[in-house]
Amino acid sequence: MPQRPLRPLLGIGLMIAAGLSFTVLDGSAKFLVRSYPLVEVVWARYVFSLVTVGAFLPRHGLAGLVRTDQPRQQLGRGFLILSTTLLMFVALRFMPLADTYAISFVAPLMVAAASVLLLGETIGRNQWLAILGGFAGVLVVVRPGFGAFSWAAVFPLLMAVGNVVVQLMTRVMSGGERAATTMFYTSLAGSIGMSLLVPFFWVTPGPGAWAVMMLMGAAGFGGQLLLFLAFRAAPASVVAPFSYTQILWAIPAGWLVFGDLPDAATLAGGAIVVASGLALAQLGRRDRMAARG
Predict the structure, then answer these.
(1) Is 3 domain-assigned?
(2) Within a domain: residue 130?
(3) Could you list the residue range(s) of the whole structural domain that residue 153 is in?
(4) pLDDT band for position 81 (50/70/90)?
(5) Per-residue pLDDT tens over the stretch 155-203
(6) What is the C-alpha to C-alpha distance for residues 15 and 164, in angstroms, rounded to an integer?
(7) What's the pLDDT score for residue 293?
């Protein structure tokens, strides 16, 4: 089968659109958790994503959607993503969107550091400096010991750690697994896990809340699909840095919907994290080109 031609501009556009979808997902969750139990909101996120995955049925059929060579890894990854979703939604209950993103964006830097220990990859001195710079940016946002620390900041930090494991698992599992199958198992694991709990927390939603729940599930599905298509259209080194545009969506969304505006420390710390991530991506790309040359 001939290899698909790479289309960098398309990949960048898809990544930016994925960031918008994830902002809609998180904004919807933040809106819902103010009035409905966290367990119910997370349940809705996965159940409606699972319903949306049904769009793949005409193309792959149920057997093709379910077929996988790594069922335990798929379900394990799905339940881990469920845990990170719970942490994210708790953070959104108590923190503005932009603040939460500024902290959670340390995850790509943590992936780079963890890949050295767990996958045997090597990174240079300048890349380590970029990683340390990113962690410094998180400290600027969190401000521990300066009276501005929010206990809720622990949740996006824990979520970032969980995302490190998810991304490392995805990197190991990526060969041979189709996107539709991975999204199916991710939604299935979340739906099963939360369906066991939701009867104990159920509050009947009104028509408007049902609509927001369906929007949330569709946005989560759409974001994951756009992310997959972005990485298929162009190299990761080209599209990955544009995941940081999500914070640009979060600032106006947080202001228009919730009246939240990030303070100077959040903007400064977020800028440091984003700059460190971009520098890390650029350094990694330069090293790969040097190795090929």
Answers:
(1) no
(2) yes
(3) 8-292
(4) confident
(5) 888 888 887 777 667 666 655 667 778 888 888 889 999 999 999 999 9
(6) 19
(7) 55
Q: Per the domain annotation, does 230 fall within a domain?
A: yes
Measured CA to CA in angstroms, residue 103 lies from 133, 141, 202, 210, 211 at distances of: 13, 7, 31, 30, 29
Displacement of CA 33 from its chain's centroid (Å):
19
DSSP symbols for the chain: -PPPPP-HHHHHHHHHHHHHHHHHHHHHHHHHHTTS-HHHHHHHHHHHHHHHHGGGHHHHHHHHHH--S-HHHHHHHHHHHHHHHHHHHHHHHHS-HHHHHHHHTTHHHHHHHHHHHHS-----HHHHHHHHHHHHHHHHHH-TTTT---GGGHHHHHHHHHHHHHHHHHHHH-TT--HHHHHHHHHHHHHHHHHTTGGGT--PPPHHHHHHHHHHHHHHHHHHHHHHHHHHHS-HHHHGGGGGGHHHHHHHHHHHHH-----HHHHHHHHHHHHHHHHHHHHHHHHHHHHH-
Closest CA to 243 of 280, 290, 269: 280
Split into its structural domains, the chain has a count of 1
The C-alpha atoms of residue 177 and residue 171 are separated, in whole angstroms, by 11
| 279, two tokens | 């520098």
- Residue 31, in any domain of the structure: yes
